[in-house]
Amino acid sequence: MKYRRLGNSGLKISEIGLGSWLTYGETVGNQNAIDCIHQAYELGINFFDTANAYNGGEAEKVVGEALKSYSRESYVLATKVFFPMGDGPNDRGLSRKHIIEQCDASLKRLGVDYLDLYQCHRFDEETPTEETLRALDDLVQQGKILYYGVSEWTAVQITDAVHITKEKNLRPLISNQPIYNMLVRYIEKEVLPVSEKAGIGQVVFSPLAQGILTGKYKPGQEIPSNTRAANENINRWIKSYLNDEVLERVARLEGIANDLGLKLSQLAVAWILRQPGVSSAIVGASHPEQVIENVKASEVELSNDVLTEIESVLKEIDGFVPIW
């Protein structure tokens, strides 16, 4: 496993991280999830990402249970705050009240004394950005979090936040967690340049496009019954990918992978790791074998000729944006 600095900070994270969205504490049994986390750790992954909203806090509990087997200083633990955690008017968003209360709740569920990275899961239109940033800065001062970042903020929102941290002498943002993969590349136009200028690293999620970039879905064929897309509880996240136009291009990408002796998933993750500004690609896994397969992408070197060939395919689906 290789490690990269997270933005301009001194924090080093594995270039492949393990996430828990839509899986741990919900669709994957707890022991299986723990086995995946243990497998990831043994393969050198030190970056583990979750969120308080994942299955109402259950994912945090599973991640915390798995990681208690290891010394706290040996891994980097990230979680997030924003989405509703109750029915009250203050049980959501990025107000000082919600951030402080949910940080304490996440620490309890995870069974740790501090978080390495605490991220704003979305932008809050109803809370002044300065209030949010001051709350996060105070949590750093208290030792409850070490660094903070954002997720799915626009270039303008990131720019405003960076300006406030400098103007008010607050600790800087070090991370952004956007969706980014071969099919969804909107961050390249504005978010990546703004982040690079500000020293913010990308810890991207869904590098396999919710499984589309594994090659399991074929154009003109029914959805396999044992796949995520067949699960009525979560297939809303990926149904926008499932059209023959996209799947035909994915099949061509799989042909490129086959020529290189790779699985499509490995090609997709290796491609992400070649993109500027990316500190880590966060993969999901429901079985330890998937962790092993994804980690191999860290060893893949893609030539400029291969990257050019990939780009020629991707240009044909440029602008495709999933509803997720």
Domain tally? 1
The number of strands is 10
Number of helices: 10
Q: Return the structural class.
A: alpha/beta
The CATH superfamily bears the name NADP-dependent oxidoreductase domain
Helicity range of the residues? 25-40%
Unreliable stretches: none
The arrangement of helices and strands along the chain is EEEHEHEHEHEHEHEHHEHH
Query: In the CATH scheme, what's the topology name?
Result: TIM Barrel
**Terminal residue distance:** 30 Å
What is the radius of gyration computed over CA atoms, rounded to a whole number of angstroms?
19 Å
Kindly estimate the percentage of residues that lie in beta strands according to DSSP. Answer: 5-15%
CATH architecture tag: Alpha-Beta Barrel
Q: What characteristic shape results from the CA principal axes?
A: globular
Mean pLDDT score: 92
